[in-house]
Amino acid sequence: TDYETPALVARAEGAAGVIMLDRRAGSPNWTQRRNRSEAGQMRPGRPQPGVPTLSLGPAGATALLSGSGLNADALMGATVAPELLKTKAFRAEVSASVQVDTQESVSHNVCGLIPGTDPTLKAETVILGAHYDHIGMREVPAGQDGIFNGADDDGSGTVALLNIAEAIAKNPVQPKRSVLFLWFTGEERGLLGSREFVANPTVDLSKAAAMFNIDMIGRSKETSSDIPANENLARKGQVYLIGPNVFSPALSALMNRVNNSYQKLNLDQRYDDPNDPNRFWARSDHYPFAEVGIPAAFFFSGVHEDYHQLSDHVEKIDFEQLETVSRAVLAMLWEVANIPVSPRAAGTTNPNARG
After folding, report:
1. DSSP letter at 233?
2. Which domain holds residue 122?
3. What was the pLDDT predicted at 27?
4. Rg (CA), the chain
């Protein structure tokens, strides 16, 4: 369940607050999680007073549930018996002081459009996106680096997008379909920018042919690397392709065909599965577009030791890999922008994969 859902339901029902039972309390990364929580949450729209939310670890949960007939250990286990998930009312008194501050912030998506040249097909749009936000800063002692640069996440996608846009704009032959370039804000806060665009688009999304998303394509695994955090990092000449099998088999076939005749990358689709426990297919900016029926594809090189760390620096970017993947994306996008019938028009988007 989405962490925000209990608070949103509680606010709608007029609850005074929410108490979350979290078995991770006291774990080695608990302080980091607490700091992230205290940094606040972002939601689209005007600020609204939040519902005070507390997290209790095992000791606090045991005290709260004393006399309720509920067992804290059973409720906070790795798996919870279905009968324990049923709602149960009990009396308990909790006294806490929580300060909730709200403020309004403004951030922007950045859009660029290359109009199509075909009198009919130019009404359709191929979308290419990447997010330009990252996770901000951390308070550190004076003289230390507290900036999360996000060179790979998603500086790599941002740069790839800009270079692809420039290549198409300078090409003497222009695409038949229109091509929309989108640099999203707020991805790290819950796909805020892409969700806002889908809710209030600048083009007719009912005529969107496909959406390509580039997020973290700037790293590759060294052959000799034995660092556990880099175990699933793509190797040179390899990229994870996520989404086509889940959302549109027609798009998957097109992308593999173009790749086999051009860059010949290893298009690894191991994560292109609705049953993937990582749920990568739902964790980046392509997903809101897929939710409204647009065939979507996500290019990704995998997580690594510097993911969401201060150490995600530009010095660690594999620029050869970045260029290779960017060229492959350009070739696939160009094909979709010029073929007579788009993957979406083929009517093969898988509606059961959405949501």
Report:
1. P
2. 110-353
3. 67
4. 23
| Overall average pLDDT of the 298-313 stretch | 96
Whether 162 and 299 share a structural domain? yes
Query: 241: part of which helix (H) or strand (E)?
Result: strand 238-242
Statement to judge: residues 81 and 115 lie in one domain:
no
In a domain, 63, yes or no: yes
Is the separation of the CB atoms in 299 and 128 below 8 Å? no
First-last CA distance in the chain: 13
**178 phi/psi in degrees, rounded to 5:** -70, 150
pLDDT single digits (tens) 236-286? 999 999 999 888 889 999 999 999 999 999 999 999 998 899 999 999 999
Task: Look at residue 101 and tell me if it is in a domain.
Answer: no
- 132 and 61 in one domain? no
Q: Mapping DSSP to helix (H, G, I), strand (E, B) and coil, where does residue 127 land?
A: strand
The dihedral through the CA atoms of 18, 102, 12, 198 has a sign that is: negative
Tokens 């519902």 correspond to: 51
Token pair of 206, please? Answer: 């009912």
105, part of any domain? no
Predicted confidence (pLDDT) at residue 48 exceeds the cutoff of 70: no
| Residues 76 and 166 reside in one and the same domain | no
Residue ranges of E strands in 218-295:
238-242, 266-268
The conformation of residue 152, written as its DSSP 8-state character, comes to I
Same domain, 124 and 242: yes
